[in-house]
């Protein structure tokens, strides 16, 4: 059945059901028939109360069935897809970075891979790697690497061979660790994103990106994956981005 006809049928059936319920409740109220009552009518249960109780029971049943349908449609296990979240960081405020990473830990997507690429490898940039390891479970769970260059900083001869070896280390770290952080030579946000995408390669099915000051909803990865999986004509999905700042509008 076409979706337009199914929608029209749902509207008609819902309207008829609501009309029947309304008519039944009004009829029960007018007649005032009672099934059970006390001697002085302190307590009573009549046709009106029975109709309201039946209506409440049906509403609860339909709500339960709809809730089960939505949960079944939203289970990530049936999709069996892998997702990597790539975070770009550049001299980020420590509080913002912590909030971002804590929200990442709350994402309800099993096996989500997280890659933080820091645009800068100077000692003063080290605090971002330290925060990443602190929030993501320590050095035993979060792999990290300081890269002297980036994917486009190689020279010739021996430098080129050394650069290829370092690039291979970065790719190996990103692909083998669920949580990984790479500090690299400054090159701008595009270079940061290139590192994440290049290192991941085809090891995951989908790549999700955000900045290091973004607080993510726990269901963000799953909701975006559902859209990509359900509609083959969609190649990318953007989230509902809201700006929250400590300053009044127009001051930033």
Textual characterization of the structure:
With 252 residues, the chain is α/β, with parallel strands linked by helices. 48% of the residues lie in helices and 15% in strands. It is built from 7 helices and 7 strands, in the order αββαβαβαβαβαβα. The strands form 2 sheets. The chain has a 5-stranded parallel β-sheet with strand order 5-6-4-3-7, sandwiched between helices. Strand 5 (142-146), helix 5 and strand 6 (179-184) form a beta-alpha-beta unit. It is elongated. The two termini are 52 Å apart.
Rg (CA only): 28 Å
Mean pLDDT: 86
Largest sheet: 5 strands, parallel
Secondary-structure element order, N to C? HEEHEHEHEHEHEH
Q: End-to-end distance, in Å?
A: 52 Å
- Number of helices, counting only DSSP H or I runs of 4 residues or more: 7
What fraction of residues sit in β-strands? Answer: 15-25%
Alpha-beta classification: alpha/beta
Instruction: Write out the strand line-up for the largest beta sheet, numbering strands in chain order.
Output: 5-6-4-3-7
Q: How many distinct beta strands?
A: 7
Low-confidence stretches: none
Helicity, in percent?
40-55%
Backbone shape: elongated
Essential attributes:
alpha/beta; five-stranded parallel sheet; 7 strands
What is the compact description of this entry?
The protein has 7 helices and 7 strands; from the N terminus they run H-E-E-H-E-H-E-H-E-H-E-H-E-H.
SSE inventory with pairings:
Elements: H1 3-31, E1 34-37, E2 44-46, H2 47-73, E3 83-89, H3 94-105, E4 113-119, H4 126-136, E5 142-146, H5 158-176, E6 179-184, H6 189-200, E7 206-211, H7 220-230
Helix pairs in contact: 1-2, 3-4, 5-6
């Amino acid at each position: 059945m076409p979706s337009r006809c199914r929608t029209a049928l749902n509207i008609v059936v819902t309207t008829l059901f609501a009309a029947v319920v309304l008519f039944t409740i009004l009829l029960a109220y007018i007649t005032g028939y009672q099934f059970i009552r006390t001697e002085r009518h302190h307590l009573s249960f009549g046709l009106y109360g029975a109709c309201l109780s039946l209506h409440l029971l049906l509403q609860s049943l339909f709500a339960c069935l709809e809730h089960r349908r939505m949960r079944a449609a939203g289970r990530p296990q049936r999709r069996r897809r892998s997702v990597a979240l790539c975070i770009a960081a550049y001299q980020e405020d420590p509080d913002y970075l912590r909030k971002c990473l804590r929200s990442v830990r709350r994402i309800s997507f099993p096996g989500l891979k997280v890659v933080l690429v820091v645009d800068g490898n100077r000692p003063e940039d080290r605090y971002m790697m330290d925060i990443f390891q602190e929030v993501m479970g320590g050095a035993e769970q979060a792999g990290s690497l300081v890269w002297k260059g980036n994917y486009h900083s190689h020279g010739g001869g021996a430098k080129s061979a050394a650069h290829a070896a370092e690039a291979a280390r970065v790719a190996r770290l990103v692909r083998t660790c669920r949580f990984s952080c790479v500090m690299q030579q400054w090159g701008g946000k595009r270079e940061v994103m290139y590192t994440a995408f290049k290192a991941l390669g085809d090891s995951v099915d989908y790549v999700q990106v955000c900045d290091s000051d973004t607080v993510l909803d726990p269901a963000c990865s799953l909701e975006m994956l559902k859209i990509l999986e359900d509609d083959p004509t969609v190649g990318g999905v953007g989230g509902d981005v809201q700006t929250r700042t400590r300053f009044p509008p127009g001051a930033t």
